[in-house]
Structure formats: C-alpha cells, structure tokens
Design a protein that fits this description.
The chain is α+β, with helices and mostly antiparallel strands. Helix content is 37%, strand content 25%. The chain has helices at residues 2-30, 36-39, 45-49, 131-135, 172-186, 194-209, 224-233, 240-253, 310-319, 344-350, 371-381, 394-425, and strands at residues 41-42, 56-64, 67-73, 81-86, 89-95, 100-102, 106-114, 121-129, 144-150, 258-264, 266-267, 270-271, 275-282, 287-291, 297-301, 326-331, 334-339, 356-359, 385-387. A hairpin with a 2-residue loop joins strand 2 and strand 3 (67-73). Helix 1 (2-30) packs across helix 12 (394-425), helix 6 crosses helix 8 (240-253) and helix 7 (224-233) crosses helix 8. The longest helix is centred in the last third of the chain and has 32 residues, at 394-425.
C-alpha cells in the first residue's frame, strides 16, 4: 500500500513538471517569443525541394571491381532493359531492375536509358581508379569510386510528395468562382504549361491588386477569395500574406501546385524577418519556383534558365553574386525581364539571410476547434517545416512533441484514475 502511494505521488509530481514545461513551451516560447525551434520541425534542402515523385539515385552496389549498380528511387519496373553509353559511345546494356555500369578507368560520362520506359534516362560522371593503378606507385589504396556529377539528385534522404505542401481544400462554390475568373479574365487554358499559367496569373493579379497594397482593414474577409474580392472592390488594402494566399488559391485551382512560405525569426526581441510569399512546383522543370507578388516578382532564373527557389535566393543574398540571374518583374503595368540586381533590394528587404523560412504543410482541420487548438494539433501531428542558415535545433521541436504527448497521456491517466475511484465509492 505504501509503495503504491509512493508511486502515485511520484507520478503526480511528474505530471506537474510535465504540465509546467508544456505551459512554458506553448504559453511563452511559442506564443510570446515565437521561437521557431519549438514549433517547426527542421528540414534540409532535399526534403523541401526534392519531391518523392522525382527520380533520384539512392545508392550504389559494387558488383565487381569494374562494375557498379546504381539504385534508383522510385524503383524502376522489375524487368527493365538499360542502354548504356560511355562518353557518347555505345557500351552495350543490361537486363536488370537497376542499371549496371561497365566502369572505365579515370573520369568518364555515362548516359543511361531505360528502353522500356524512355522517359527514365540520366547521365552520371564517375571517376574510377582500380587498386592496380595505385600499386604502380607503390600505394596500397583500394579501388576508389567517386561521383563527379549527375543529372539526378544523389542521396538517401527523406522526401515528401508535392501534394503534402498544397492546400486543395477549397469550397466548391469558391472553386467555381475562381475557375470562371481564370478562364474568362486570366486566359488560362488547360494545355498551358505550368510556367505560362504562373506568368498569366501573376500578371493578372498584379495588374488588379498592385495599387491595393497596405494595412488590411479589421473586417477583411480572411479567406483568399474574400480578400481578393475586398481588394478589388477597394474596401480593404492587403499585405504580403494576402498576396501570397490569393496567388496560391488561383495557381492551385489552375492545376499548378503552390505552397506558402513565411519568413520569421527573432533574436533578443528583434524580428529577423516577417514576410510571406509562395512557391509553385512546375512539373515540366521538376522545380519549386519563387513567386512573390508583394515584391512584384513572378519568377527568377539563373543564366542557364533554371528557375530559382527561396533557398537559392537566400544564397544569392548572402554571396552577392548575381551575374546572369534575371527576374520576371511587374513594372509600368506589365511583366518585364530585368537583371536580378534591379529587384534584389526589394527582395532583400524581406528575404533576410539570417531569418528562418517556414514551409506550410497541407491542412489538418478539426471541425469546431478553436484556432489555437488547431495550431497545437498541427504542430504535434503535421508540423510545418523550417529552414535557415542556422537551422533551428531539432531537439527543441522534439521536446515540444515529447512533452506535448506526455502531458496528454498523463492527463488521460489521471482522468481514468479518478473516474475509477469514483466508481469504486458508488454503492452497489
């Protein structure tokens, strides 16, 4: 009996400590300090920008001294036929699930194509040195294999599908209204490539809303379509967050997956960033692209024509090297191709290299739940992802999850404990 009471007392003390820690995290660290390390799960560039749908090289298997198997994800069909070329010359092929390269000494470029699935092809440059070559110089070094470059991402890391970032939960009535605007006013056609759709939507929204930027009215309709209608009617100005949400609504309804990204972070009470923009996934290039209508920038691309994302721009801001980079920006009532240096000051005002980027995940709504409860459930189950040059320590978010679930389990235990005690005392 005494041991039982001791255990109960220890559990009661543990419950108080856990609840006190939860109160500090949710009531102060998250709500007052707005420390992203407690609310958002840290993520790397691969998880944020290489979707799980995209083919990548996930590993290698050395079959023989001069034969290397390349593992791919998603895995190709079991019965695949691979055609292989080395430096442009035919090198035969193989029948296997994964391609097997006949390696040549030193650096060579291998072109691999799945003849059963023509859209699955890639190039990889491998620097290979057998141990016999080292032995000529009296070196006891084993066979070495080094990837110099590859057209596919290389790495075995966690990824997320594009859809996990996209909010497709648009009421049917609002979706029909947006579809009508896209067809009638924006000129969107079903066969338009994603980039064309983004440019058309960006041009239309900036022409309609650029003069409406400012502090939103207290009674502004919070829904993206409602905010758009209020701004068009002139009953309220809109901020960066509304610009981003309106664009995301139009782009997603048009069939271009688009997510919301916010810039946040504080240091000793001073904000390191406070901004919102969007990123659209363009299937034809397989890349997430930066779209910031509040900064009047629709797309940014480098000298090779690759569309750039927010992290790319963070690095540009940090390095200060923008040669060959251009931006499609809204000037004088139309979209113009400008050198990046002309828009860099505007982007740099909001996309500070020291800030934290937060990538919104898809919705997780609880009917009738209050906003704070919704946010708490999302944080515990489907957290937004954070990235910065100094990535928030993952241990703080794990602490939020551990203490949050521990508090809920302990509260449930005490509820059942007291319910059992009451039932025992009832007569009969």
């Amino acid at each position: 009996m005494i041991r039982h009471r001791t255990r109960i007392h220890i559990l009661a003390l543990a419950t108080l400590l856990v609840l006190a820690a939860d109160a500090w995290i949710w009531g102060y660290a998250i709500s007052v300090r707005r420390d992203p390390a407690y609310r958002y799960r840290a993520a790397g560039v691969a998880e944020l920008y290489i979707p799980s749908e995209r083919q990548r090289i996930s590993g290698f298997r050395i079959l023989a001294e001069d034969r290397l198997e390349i593992r791919l994800v998603p895995a190709p069909p079991t019965h695949s036929r691979w055609a292989i070329r080395v430096d442009g010359e035919d090198a035969g092929g193989c029948d296997a699930r994964y391609p097997r390269l006949p390696l040549r000494t030193e650096a060579h470029r291998y072109t691999v194509r799945n003849t059963a699935k023509p859209d699955l092809s890639f190039t990889i440059e491998i620097d290979y040195y057998p141990h016999e070559l080292y032995a000529r110089y009296n070196a006891t070094i084993g066979d070495t294999y080094r990837v110099v470059s590859a057209s596919l991402p290389v790495g075995n890391y966690a990824t997320l599908p594009v859809a996990s970032f996209v909010d497709q939960d648009v009421p049917a009535g609002q979706r029909r209204q947006v579809e009508q605007i896209l067809a009638r006013d924006v000129g969107i056609r079903g066969n338009d490539p994603g980039r064309v759709k983004v440019e058309k939507i960006g041009r239309f929204l900036l022409a309609a809303l650029d003069s409406r930027r400012g502090i939103p009215a207290p009674d502004l309709d919070p829904s993206p379509l409602g905010s758009y209608q209020c701004a068009r009617a002139g009953t309220s100005a809109i901020w960066c967050d509304q610009f981003a949400r309106i664009f995301a609504l139009f782009a997603n309804v048009a069939g271009v997956p688009t997510r919301l990204v916010s810039v946040t972070g504080r240091l000793d009470g001073v904000m390191l960033g406070a901004h919102g923009f969007a990123e659209s996934f363009l299937a034809e290039s397989g890349r997430w692209a930066y779209v910031d209508l509040f900064s009047r920038v629709v797309l940014v691309e480098d000298a090779q024509g690759r569309l750039l994302n927010a992290v790319d721009l963070l690095m540009l801001q940090r390095a200060g090297v923008t040669s060959g980079v251009t931006a499609l920006a809204f000037r004088d009532g139309r979209l113009q191709r400008l050198p990046y240096r002309e828009v860099a000051p505007e982007i740099g005002r909001y996309l500070a290299p020291d800030a934290t980027l937060v990538y919104s995940r898809g919705p997780l709504s609880l009917p009738g739940a209050r906003q704070r409860l919704q946010r708490a459930v999302r944080t515990l189950l489907v957290p937004d992802l954070a990235f910065s040059l100094a990535t928030p320590p993952g241990s703080r978010y794990l602490l939020t999850v551990l203490l949050g679930w521990s508090g809920l389990v302990l509260l449930l235990f005490w509820l059942l404990f007291f319910l059992r005690a009451v039932l025992r005392r009832r007569p009969g």
